[in-house]
Amino acid sequence: MSAFKDLDPLLHSQLRLAVMSLLVSVQSAEFVYIKEKTNATAGNLSVQIDKLSSAGYIDVVKTFKGKKPLTTCKITKKGLKAFEDYVNTLQQYIKK
Question: Could you tell me which residue ranges the Winged helix DNA-binding domain spans (predicted)?
Fold first, then answer.
């Protein structure tokens, strides 16, 4: 198995991978949109977004829309590279 590159454990979570997959295809996305698309609970999604943000894979901006809090997520260059590496590594597994 040493010929294989390790999969990024941060992206190997189903929900975190789903979040990254969504963010790759849009400029930015609101928390509610991500929650709806992933069918995640608000609490779980919050935790996973924090992990991705701490790793520098996404930027999280918290503002207000009227009086309601608004959280917007955007993939970073580092996150895009990590996602592309993850996909490439998966493809290597499939080809072997």
Answer: 15-94
